[in-house]
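Before we proceed, please read the two lines closing this message. Report back on whether the structure tokens fit the sequence:
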Amino acid sequence: MEMVNLKLYLENRCIIAENERLRERASALRRENLALRENLSKTAATEPPAAGAKAA
């Protein structure tokens, strides 16, 4: 029984570590996404409309 508990404990620790790595990666991707969206909106706001584009 102790071996089963140890195995489950170690498996749980691996899952927790992987979860933390994934959280950090998701956080980094979210920050990158926000920065890219901000850059895109700034670029879109400063560029003149394309030729043939209708004004809104």
About this structure: The chain has a mean pLDDT of 92.
